[in-house]
């Protein structure tokens, strides 16, 4: 298994994985929209996407991170926003390798850390993240405001 940067040549396979990721979170299937979204991220270079590729050159998973900044720390911070491994490839260690590659991005960019959010009922994620060194942070409340004028 290889972990590497995603590129434009990966869009077809990556779009399918990204659509499956969205379905996992109960979003409506939208291959066209997923492809456009990923193509924009790659073309605009406004996220980091790493892919897990098996020995047959098939993409089996991905992680996508967005840069943020911590004003109080005066440093870059990364949001690990998306992590997905195809259900047929789970248990092979791809998630942990993608997380390790993400940690390397944090180190390479001299960022102060990264954070992520997952649903309370995501048993896989809530088991994976602590085993990968993440700590559940309960020092503040997380709030969200949703623009109801935008389809999500």
What's the short version?
With 152 residues, this protein is an alpha+beta fold.
Question: Which SSEs are present, and which pair or pack?
Answer:
Layout: E1 2-5, H1 11-24, H2 31-44, E2 48-53, E3 59-70, E4 75-85, H3 94-108, E5 114-116, H4 123-131
Parallel strand pairs: 4-5
Antiparallel strand pairs: 1-2, 2-3, 3-4
Helix pairs in contact: 1-2
- The name of the CATH architecture is 3-Layer(aba) Sandwich
Fraction of residues in β-strands: 15-25%
- The helix content is 25-40%
Number of strands: 5
List the secondary-structure elements in sequence, H or E. Answer: EHHEEEHEH
Q: What is the helix tally?
A: 4
Question: Mean pLDDT across all residues, rounded?
Answer: 93
Structural class, from secondary structure content? alpha+beta
Supply Rg.
Answer: 16 Å
Q: Specify the biggest β-sheet.
A: 5 strands, mixed
């Amino acid at each position: 298994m290889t972990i590497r940067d995603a590129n434009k040549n990966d869009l077809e396979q990556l779009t399918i994985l990204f659509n499956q990721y969205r379905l996992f979170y109960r979003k409506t299937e939208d291959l066209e929209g997923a492809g456009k979204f990923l193509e924009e991220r790659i073309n605009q270079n406004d996220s980091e996407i790493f892919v897990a590729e098996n020995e047959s050159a098939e993409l089996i998973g991905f992680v996508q991170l967005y840069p943020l900044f911590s004003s109080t720390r005066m440093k870059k911070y990364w949001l690990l926003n998306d992590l997905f491994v195809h259900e047929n490839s789970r248990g092979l260690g791809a998630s942990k390798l993608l997380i390790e590659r993400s940690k390397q991005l944090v180190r390479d960019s001299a960022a102060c850390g990264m954070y992520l959010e997952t649903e309370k009922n995501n048993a896989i994620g809530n088991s994976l993240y602590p085993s990968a060194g993440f700590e559940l942070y309960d020092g503040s409340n997380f709030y969200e405001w949703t623009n109801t004028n935008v389809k999500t």
